[in-house]
Amino acid sequence: MLKKLFGRVKSQKGMSGVLIAMLLVVVGVGLVAGVNTFMTDNMSDITLKAQGNIDTATSNVP
After folding, report:
1. What is the DSSP secondary structure assignment for residue 50, as one 8-state letter?
2. Residue 54 CB: number of other CB atoms within 10 A?
Protein backbone atom coordinates (compact mmCIF):
# COMPACT_ATOMS: atom_id res chain seq x y z
CA MET A 1 0.00 0.00 0.00
CA LEU A 2 2.78 2.44 0.85
CA LYS A 3 4.63 1.52 -2.34
CA LYS A 4 1.57 2.53 -4.36
CA LEU A 5 1.31 5.80 -2.45
CA PHE A 6 4.98 6.63 -2.93
CA GLY A 7 4.77 5.70 -6.59
CA ARG A 8 1.79 7.97 -7.06
CA VAL A 9 3.47 10.86 -5.23
CA LYS A 10 6.71 10.45 -7.19
CA SER A 11 4.87 10.42 -10.51
CA GLN A 12 3.09 13.69 -9.81
CA LYS A 13 4.31 16.81 -11.53
CA GLY A 14 5.34 19.62 -9.26
CA MET A 15 7.18 17.35 -6.87
CA SER A 16 9.50 20.20 -6.00
CA GLY A 17 6.54 22.07 -4.49
CA VAL A 18 5.76 19.12 -2.27
CA LEU A 19 9.38 18.82 -1.19
CA ILE A 20 9.61 22.52 -0.42
CA ALA A 21 6.42 22.35 1.65
CA MET A 22 7.74 19.35 3.57
CA LEU A 23 11.05 21.12 4.14
CA LEU A 24 9.28 24.20 5.47
CA VAL A 25 7.23 22.06 7.84
CA VAL A 26 10.36 20.33 9.15
CA VAL A 27 12.16 23.65 9.61
CA GLY A 28 9.15 25.15 11.36
CA VAL A 29 8.79 22.24 13.75
CA GLY A 30 12.52 22.32 14.49
CA LEU A 31 12.40 26.05 15.16
CA VAL A 32 9.46 25.75 17.54
CA ALA A 33 11.09 22.83 19.34
CA GLY A 34 14.37 24.74 19.65
CA VAL A 35 12.74 27.86 21.09
CA ASN A 36 10.66 25.76 23.47
CA THR A 37 13.75 23.90 24.68
CA PHE A 38 15.68 27.16 25.14
CA MET A 39 12.86 28.76 27.13
CA THR A 40 12.37 25.67 29.30
CA ASP A 41 16.07 25.31 30.06
CA ASN A 42 16.60 29.00 30.85
CA MET A 43 13.32 29.79 32.61
CA SER A 44 14.78 29.92 36.12
CA ASP A 45 17.70 32.10 35.01
CA ILE A 46 15.38 34.52 33.20
CA THR A 47 13.05 34.66 36.21
CA LEU A 48 15.90 35.38 38.64
CA LYS A 49 17.33 38.14 36.43
CA ALA A 50 13.90 39.72 35.99
CA GLN A 51 13.25 39.62 39.74
CA GLY A 52 16.66 41.18 40.41
CA ASN A 53 15.94 44.00 37.96
CA ILE A 54 12.52 44.59 39.54
CA ASP A 55 14.05 44.67 43.01
CA THR A 56 16.72 47.14 41.87
CA ALA A 57 14.16 49.39 40.19
CA THR A 58 11.80 49.45 43.17
CA SER A 59 14.54 49.97 45.76
CA ASN A 60 15.59 53.25 44.10
CA VAL A 61 12.10 54.76 44.45
CA PRO A 62 12.09 57.50 47.12
Report:
1. H
2. 10
